[in-house]
Amino acid sequence: MTATMRAIVQHAYGGPEVLQLAEVSRPEPGVTEVLVRVHAAGVNPIDGKTRAGGGFAPHVGRPPFIPGWDLSGVVEQIGYGVTRFQPGDEVYGMPNFPHRAGTYAEFVAVRSRQLARKPASLSHVQAAALPLAGLTAWQSLVDTAQAGPGMRVLIHAAAGGVGHLAVQIAHARGAYVIGTARAAKHDFVRALGADEVIDYTAVAFEDAVEPVDVVLDLVGGETRRRSLEVLADGGLLIPLPRGLDVSQEAAERGLRVAPVIVEPDYRGLEHLAELADSGQLKVSVSRELPLAQAAQAHRYLDAGGATGKTVLTVITPS
Questions:
Q1: Cα–Cα distances in Å, from 135 out to 49, 252, 265, 283, 290?
Q2: Which helix (H) or strand (E) holds 297?
Q3: Are strands 33-43 and 107-111 parallel, antiparallel or unpaired?
Q4: What would you report as the CA-atom Rg of the chain, rounded to the nearest whole angstrom?
Q5: Angle subtended by helix axes 266-277 and 131-138, to nearest 10
Q6: Eight-class DSSP state of 100
């Protein structure tokens, strides 16, 4: 008899209501893969866009499929050729992004080099919130911008899922960090290590910010074009998400634009784990819901303005 598991399955593109709890076949680990018993699965805004047929839907493929990319859990079984992990190891990661991964499930088969050991200081819920958002921030600010001492970094949507991690990473690297957020979230952003916080609803940020070396744009639209105004000569704009292309205008001003699409990266995950375990990186989970309430989690994120991360619990902590 084929082993089964609980998973969230969507059979069509659409609103959150297409996310349904179902009983499906349990995967088996192939060559170089491990089978992870998922304890918690992170939920990201890109999940909702892909659910609706946008985002990375072309890469995931047409429904039916199991959504999700972020996970934290325990290795249940290893496939042939795996040497990095053994059954019982606690791991976390963002497998196969932007292609189909299916982490909204009790078990996931994952290539071993797309996982890292879970930060010891974080719960599974906190660890599941970290991979996609944390790697996005790390690959943007460290791998691409090489943020460090003496650099000024502006982070838009600094209280959000990627933003609140980006503030801490830039701060840990020794950069001077400026964030934009609503006034009600200023204390939260300052506590993360921001040197300045600007209420974008009260003032035009380009009038309030001295020139910066890097802008991490997590908003898009006209915010992207206006961000060119605050970049110093030779400055770098990292635009996320995809959308308005200002690369030609930037080049005419002597500025650089470097779009980033996050990739699975176990080395990056290890760096994030080191920051977390050293106390330099805290993960804010604003909403925690059971797997069966995936649709509710998507409604929350679809509404926008979330602080921190949203996570689905697959195994209830004892």
A1: 19, 31, 8, 13, 24
A2: helix 294-302
A3: antiparallel
A4: 19
A5: 100
A6: -
8 Å CB contact between 310 and 300: yes
245, 223 in Cβ contact below 8 A? Answer: no
Q: What is the DSSP letter of 26?
A: P
For residues 11 and 266, the answer to whether their CB atoms sit within 8 Å is no
Residue in the structure block whose two tokens are 């509404």: 303
The model's pTM? 0.95
Cis-peptide into 98, omega within 30 deg: yes
- pLDDT per residue as tens, the chain (318 positions): 679 999 999 999 999 999 999 999 999 999 999 999 999 999 999 999 999 999 999 999 999 999 999 999 999 999 999 999 999 999 999 999 999 999 999 999 999 999 999 999 999 999 999 999 999 999 999 999 999 999 999 999 999 999 999 999 999 999 999 999 999 999 999 999 999 999 999 999 999 999 999 999 999 999 999 999 999 999 999 999 778 899 999 999 999 999 999 999 999 999 999 999 999 999 999 999 999 999 999 999 998 877 889 999 998 654
Q: Per the structure block, which two tokens stand in for 257?
A: 């634009």
Rounded Cα–Cα distance for residues 246 and 143 (Å): 22
**Long-range contacts for 15-18 (Cβ within 8 Å, ≥24 apart)?**
15/52, 16/48, 16/51, 16/294, 16/295, 16/296, 16/298, 16/299, 16/302, 17/295, 18/51, 18/63
Q: Are 35 and 29 in contact (CB under 8 A)?
A: yes
Rounded to an integer, what distance in angstroms lies between the CA atom of residue 163 and that of residue 159? 6
Q: At what angle do helices 161-172 and 266-277 cross, to 10 degrees?
A: 70
Q: Is-contact 69 96, C-beta < 8 A?
A: yes
Q: How many residues does the chain have?
A: 318
Q: Alpha-carbon distance 73 to 78, whole Å?
A: 14
Structure tokens at 192: 């993360």
**Side-chain half-sphere of 155: how many Cα atoms within 13 Å?**
36
